[in-house]
Specification:
Helix content is 0%, strand content 61%. It contains no helices and 17 strands. The strands form three sheets. Strands 4-5-6-8-9-10-11-12-13-14-15-16 form a twelve-stranded antiparallel β-barrel. The chain has a two-stranded antiparallel sheet with strand order 1-17. A two-stranded antiparallel sheet has the order 2-3. Strand 13 and strand 14 form a beta hairpin.
Length: 275
């Protein structure tokens, strides 16, 4: 799990269950598939579902530095095909020289669905890291832009596979003294859905940093979650660096997630997705 944020694609597209049968994972996702318009036009019926999330993250870096983040993340929906996501971190950094606390860099993300079928979805990702940290050590020190794409495929009702590729790079403020960021990251993962509105997510995330010559790293994360009350879910996440020049020892996270709606479609083929 790199320090720079990566929007993770986790889409769910599957045929609806038989009448009266609960489909695993129906209520754990962020996109659902509505019924075809009354006119019968052959248009993509996927719609984005915004969410609100609050999570606590602890990251242990090599060299005795640790970071405690309280992150508020929220979505704003446009035209049911675009989703603007922003997150605001409150950060406490502990170093051998002492503690530093304050607000970190605000991050913005944009998800645009390009097309979908009953079992496949593809979209574009974009975003920015704003230089808004209240203390220099709590942020990157320079604005960054992100661009990428993601695809997901669900061959079975209980299994979803997805992949996201993203480029992140610095822009402007060359005189700030902070190093350039030029990182290519890939997230390849799977989600297994249970019968009681729970899920298990596994990710492998290779990254390549280019400014100082190609530096390869490999991260791994796992997440377990469950929908507990209505549209409210709880989740826990853990990860570590598996290979490459050491940067992160481990990462732990826990949080609560609220979906603004579950589904608006008619009975029939439907689905959902999380980016």
């Amino acid at each position: 799990m790199p320090l720079v944020a990566t929007l993770v694609c986790a889409a769910l597209l599957a045929a609806a269950p038989a009448p009266g049968e609960a489909r695993p994972g129906d209520q754990t996702d962020d996109i659902d598939k509505a019924g075809e318009p009354a006119g019968g036009a052959a248009v993509s019926p996927v719609e984005l579902i915004p969410r609100l999330e609050l999570r606590q993250v602890y990251t242990r870096l090599s060299g005795g530095v640790s970071i405690h983040d309280s992150i508020l993340e929220s979505d704003i929906e446009f035209l049911r095909r675009l989703l603007l996501r922003y997150q605001i971190p409150a950060r406490l950094m502990e170093t051998p020289a002492g503690q530093v606390s304050g607000l970190g860099d605000i991050q913005l993300g944009l998800v645009a669905i390009l097309g979908s079928t009953p079992r496949f979805v593809g979209g574009l990702l974009g975003g920015a890291v704003l230089n808004t940290a209240t203390q220099p050590k709590l942020g990157a020190g320079r604005p960054q832009l992100m661009a990428g794409l993601g695809v997901a495929y669900k061959p079975y009702r209980w299994w979803l596979a997805y992949a996201v590729a993203q480029q992140q790079f610095t822009v402007g403020d060359a005189g700030s003294g902070r190093p350039d960021v030029d990182q290519l990251s890939v997230d390849a993962g799977s989600i297994l859905f249970g019968r009681q509105f729970n899920w298990l997510k596994l990710d492998l995330m290779p990254t390549v940093d280019f400014p100082n010559g190609a530096v390869d790293r490999l991260y791994g994360t796992s997440e377990a979650g469950v929908l507990v009350i209505g549209r409210v879910g709880l989740f826990m996440r853990a990860g570590t660096q598996l290979a490459g020049a050491r940067l992160i020892d481990f990462n732990l996270a826990a949080g609560v997630r609220y979906l603004f709606r579950l589904e608006t479609g008619k009975a029939g083929v439907k689905g959902a997705a999380e980016w």
